[in-house]
Structure formats: C-alpha cells, structure tokens
Amino acid sequence: MEKQKLKYDPYNLIITGVGGQGNVMASRVLGNMLSKMGYTVTIGETFGASQRGGSVMSHLRISSSDAFSPQIAKGRAHMIIALEPTEAIRVLAQYGNADVKVLCNTRPIYSVGVISGEQNYPSQEDIEKWVNELSAQSWFINATDEAMAKMKNPIFGNIMLLGALAGTNELPLSREGFQETISESMPADKVEINMTAYDSGIGMLG
Amino acid sequence: MTNIAEHDKNARHLLMGNEAIARGALEAGVAVAAGYPGTPSSEIIENLARVSGKRDLYVEWSTNEKVAMEVAAAASFAELRSMCVLKQNGVNVASDFFLHLAGSGTRGGMLIIPCEDPGALSSINEGDSRHFSRMLEVPLIEPGDFQEAKDMTKWGFELSEELRCPVMLRSVTRLSHASGNVVFGDLPEVDHKARFQHDGFILDPDTGIVSSAPVDYRHGLQQEKIKKAEEIFETSPFNTYTGPEKPELLVITSSACNLYTREAVLLLGAEDRVGILKLGTTWPLPPKLLEKHLAMTDKIMIVEEVIPFLEENIKILAAELAGSIGAKTFYGKRDGSIPTTNEMNPDLVVAPMAEVLGMAYEGASAEYTEKALPLAFFNAPSRDLTFCPGCPHRASFWNIHHALTLDNRNGFVCGDIGCYSMAILPTGFSTLRTMHAMGSGTGVASGFGQLGRFGMDQPVMAVSGDSTFFHAVLPALVNAVHHKADITLVVLDNSGTAMTGFQSHPGLDTDAQGGDAIKLDIRKICESMGITVRESDPFDFKDTQQQIFELMEIQEGVKVLILKQACALSPEKKHTKKFEMKVVEEACRGENCGCNRLCTRIFRCPGLVWDQEQGISKIDDAICVGCGVCADICPAGAIDRKEVA
Q1: Is the pTM of this model over 0.90?
Q2: Which of the residues A36, B38, B280, B385 has an alpha carbon 20 to 30 A from that of B329?
Q3: Under CATH, which architecture does the A11-204 domain have?
Q4: Average confidence score pLDDT of chain B
Q5: In DSSP terms, which residues pair with B434 in a beta bridge?
Q6: Distance, in angstroms, between B580 CA and closest chain A CA?
Q7: Cβ contact, residue pair A116, B388, below 8 Å
Q8: Rg for chain A (alpha carbons), in Å?
Q9: Domains located in chain B, CATH noted
C-alpha cells in the first residue's frame, strides 16, 4: 500500500486519561492500524500501579521511516487525545505547544481528592476555554455519555475517540483499516459494537 | 493481537517489548519458562503460556522467583533451553540460588530475564540488577530497541550454551511495556528431549555433578567463561557505533537510553558532532571495542538510568587504557550531568548534550509553558492512587481501621507488596504503618510480636495477599508460630495475583497453562501449624469487625483471619453488577448531616461522588460497579442498594 506523507514525521500523538478508561487498548489499536499501513510506530505507555485511578498516558510516534523514542520530548506533541478533560490540561502543560491539536472527551472522572472535597474540579466552560487557549485547534465530544446511552458501557468512549480522530483527517486512517485491526484483536461478536462506536465517534465530531 | 507462535518469517508486527522477548525465546526453541508475576515483566510468561500447547513448552508461574529460577535451571541441566523471568526485586529473591548457579554453570542455554522499573512506575523501589552480573560474575546483555529485544533473546540462548553459564538479559519498563515494529525470524521444529546426565566423571561439565563446589576449581572456570564472553563481545553485532569518524562528543549508552540518546542528537541536529556507541553487551565490557571508541575524542558522555554501572566500569577501563587513549573528560552521573534517580527521557539527555556542545536547545517554548503550567497546576486535580471501585481491600481496611481505632491501644498494621500496599495512603485509611518487600509484613510483625517483653503493649497486625502468602509469608509465619509471636495476620484473599493481571498461584486450581493444579488451602495450612483461624467476608462489616476484635483478645500466639472476596477486576466479577446503587436524595442530609460527608470525605470510593450543586452525594454510574458496600457506611441510610435481577 502506498503510504501517505504524514503532516509531521514523526507525528507525535498522546492518548491520555485515567486508569480503566481503555487508554492502552486505544493506543494499541491505533498503533496497529498505522503499522499495518507500513508506518513505523513506537508506543510508550504508563500502566501498572498507575492503573488504579491514576493518570495514564500513551505516547505514539508515527513515522514513514524510523523508530523513535517511546517518550516524546517536552513541548513536541502534535495531537493530544484526552479521554478525561482535566488530563488534557495536564498533558498540554508538559507536551503542548502553539500548534498542537486536542481531541477531548468532556465527561469528567473525579479524582479522590475531588471526591473527598480537598480539591476542586473545574467547570466544563473553563476547561474548554483553557484548552482553546493552549492549542491551535480543538474538538470536544461527550463520548462516555454517548457510549453509556448507546452501548450501555462507558468503555466504548475510547473507540469513539479513535473514530473522531479519523474524522479530523490528521492521520491517514480508514474505516476498513480499523475493522481489520479490531477483527484481529477481538472476538467476532465484539466487532460490530466497536464499529458502531467508531462510526458514532466520526458522527459526533460535528 | 499478534500471534507470536505463527511461523510468519519476515513478517513485520507491532510488538510490545515483552512480546518481542517471548517471540525471541520461541525462535530459540525454548522448552521451559518460569517466573513470578511482577510489573513490567509479566507479559513474557503470559505470552509463552498462551502458546505453550502449540510450541511444546512447559510454562509455570512459580511460587516465588527463587523457585522459578530453580525450575528453569533443572531444564538447563537436562540439556533443554530455559528461562526465568522476573522483575528487578525478584532478582534479589532468587539471588542465593543465582550465585550458586553461576558457580555450577549450566548445560542447555539459560536466560535470566529481569524487567526493571527505573522511575518506579509500578514499583516501590528502582532496584538495578545490572550489579548482580558483576557481583555474581555472569554475562549481561541489554537490548537497545524492540527488534533487538527479540534478536538478543534468541542470541542469548546460544551465548549461554557456548559459555555454559546463565546469561542475564535485562529489559526496562520503556522497552517491556513499550511497543515497536519487529520483523520475525523463523521458528524451529520442536521436539524437546530431556535427560539429566550425572554419572560421568564428577568434574565433567556435561556428565558430572552440577554444583559450585569444589569452589577453587569451579570459580576459576567461571572466570574463564567471563573472559571468553569478553572476547565474544568484542565483535558482537549488538554493539553499534553511529556517527562521524571523529566526533566531538562520544555518548556511550545502552537499553532504553539508546532511544533517548538517538532522539536527543536529532533534536539538536548534532548528527555531525556526536557519535553514539550503543552497547548491547554491558558486562563484561569488551576492552578493545571500548579502546577504539574512547580514542575517538576526549569528551565522553555516559547515558544510563539510576546507578552509574556503565560509567564506573568504563572509567576503570579508561584508567587501564590511559596510556593509549589519553586523558578523558567524562560527563555522566558523577559530575551531575545525568540524574542518579528516576527514569531518563529525551529532555534529560538533550540538556547536558547541548551544554557540552555549546548549543542552544529550546524544548517547550517558555512563553507557552508560563501560561500552561500554572493552569495545569491549579486546575487539573492531582490523581492519587486509589483502590478500584468495588475493591475488597477498601472494605477490608475499613474494617481493620475501625477495629484498631475502637480497640484504642495504638495498634498498627505491617504491610507488604500487592494492591493492598496502597493502604499506606488515604484510600486504605492510612492503615499500613510499615511496608517493605514481599512477605515482609508478616516477618516484621513477627519481630514486633516479641517486643512485649520490652514493654510494647500495642496490638500487632500484618496483612498479606493470597499470592504473597505462598511467595514469602509462609517462612515468616512459621517463624512467628514457632516463637509464639503475638500477632494477628489478615490474609486478603481476592482469588488471584490481582495486581499484575490474575496470574495463577498455589491457592488456585489452575496453572499458568490453564491446566488442572492442586489447590492449597490457606486455612488448612494455617490450622496445621496450630494457628487459630477465622474467616469472613470483608463486605460484611459487622462479622469482620467482630472477628478482628475476638482475635485481638487472644493474647498469646499467632492468629489468622482470612477475608475472602474476589477482586473487582477478576474475570468472575468484571462487567457484572451485583447491586444497582442509588443515593436517595430526600434521605441524604448533605452538608447538614453530622457525618461531615463520611461517604466521600473518608470512604472515597471513586464510584460515589459529591454533587456540588445539590450539596449531596450521588453515584457516578460510569464508575460504580455495584458492590453495595457503601450502603453500609451511610449513618443516615441514604444509600440504597437493589439487587440486580
């Protein structure tokens, strides 16, 4: 297959969220889709103890030719996908720059500090304002609530965001590529629901 | 998911470092793999177990790392290829046997594979097992990328067979748990035949006895093997140089730091000024190779994680070679260029590199960072670690904490390693007061339990997980019983090695390969030692707290309480809700209740949140797993549980 030239080489993408949101699965599906197309992909992920309610982050380096470090240098991200809105702010502070783009799920997951009343959780309006200030372009979708309403399971929020990523046209992703990858990694009866999630994600981009 | 047992030669796959290591082992025709789960190592054994039937392997989760190494060694003695996989602290556990194994030597190729965790992303230490290679005199090899993770694993078996000693292949979190593209080699036909030859001449390495004695003879032999490894390493293709013939700065690096160093050179655009000597063979160092490269320039930077292992060994060589290579200026840990704690990243390499080269590097733009950092600092709430929603440990520590508080004798709990370690934090009501290695809770408690004679009158408790019980608690428990230590051990039995992903252990009836196994009963084991044993369900607050009180009342000797409730993420529970939970709005008195927000301020389950607008608590349906426990903590009875039909 002829590889499309990437907008940047390497294209540096971060998927962030909270343990249990399917961060690792999203990064592996996306990595596999691009790897199958012939791109060289490196993924660095933080999981383990950080799964238990902590912030999690996957760094994807996508290149037409070379393998890069599993950690992106500070200030060098091109796209940040946040499964949780305040995690977008946290990651922007470390890896953001004036040209970065952000795709953000709007459903909050409260940290124990917020639950206990020791910390505040910012309003949706404030988060959107800050993300806009800190990025060149941003998209906000309520993937979790849509997944709960449509699929009765919040976990599909991660696949919706992958669909939405395809919709941004930032990376050369295709529906067929997603279907092929998901068919290889999931039992046959789970493929359809994942396709629905992917399609809804594209649809929600507006 | 990539099937690592497909023949698939020359196919290119995106593999996790641990999958690449497992594939390399299959390409080498490994026959036996044993380990004990520990992040970031667990997926190697898991992947091999998954294909064990297809590739004629024996794979086991051993009781602990020392046993795992012994099990793997036996296969090597019977002329099969074998491997032992563990995390950094597992090497400490296995080290006594490892010392003797290094002395006795091996037959079939044998790899010891520690996957380590610089930065302690999933550990409570950043132990560095590279030092064991020098201390125990065994060769150490370290892959510098994902392809090498596979290729060096395969080569490691050949090397071990050639040298007749165990070889350490070390990985780190950023290789083991990172992913990259790997091209497959071929898989051999497997027809493993085991036979242990032991009746030849006793000193014969192929047919004699396998032992580190007689020490004067065997130790000499072992050092000859290290000499031979040094020679082999001189021409190893896994030691590579990239850069100009006469670089201004030579960077010597290995492992994941190879990737950060490459990136740093690119970020600076200093490809014409910096050379990188990437070492795949890090102990013993090949002196001629080092001499050749050290002679290239007088500025040498050594990039590695945590303790200066490479740096010190290179400096010894540089001192010996001073006559031919001249004086050098070193940049590394000793002069503060590279940090000695935490993991490395491209920024930590690019900064000192830019300084040595007199170049400017602007990472994140100052203007952007000035705006973004305070926004994140003040508005993105920190995420302290917490027990999962529905976790039985939250309930167990709620009970233990209550019982100790009501007992009012300043009692305390000694802890160790597992998800329950988090009870040192508010999520477990800060109940753990000591925390060290696997099984240490019981060992330390056994010591505290002797201090009554010196006036200590506080109740002593310990906690242990079910897998930890078999791993390292048993000897400590035997010690406590034998010496009549006055302690109460609470076994938090959540039916699996939960923290690392539900690997099997001796308390379960299946093994790593999914076959039938003999299930050892913790209760019967304890009772056979004469221990008073009680059992309860931690979700039953009343009974659990009553049991703890009663056991603490018994003054003499060891008492054990087994708290049984499966992990919320266990295959049997995941995606199932026992109860539909609801906060009854009219019943929750909110801020006006005398409880002072007990449910959210203290209990802190992520599934139960505070509704700022309404000033009452509410269930977060995206998070709550319906364990039902919080219904019992609300003094106003405002949390309602309804059994899901």
Answers
A1: yes
A2: B280
A3: 3-Layer(aba) Sandwich (3.40)
A4: 96
A5: B414
A6: 14
A7: no
A8: 16
A9: 12-234 (3.40.50.970), 240-357 (3.40.50.920), 392-564 (3.40.50.970), 579-643 (3.30.70.20)
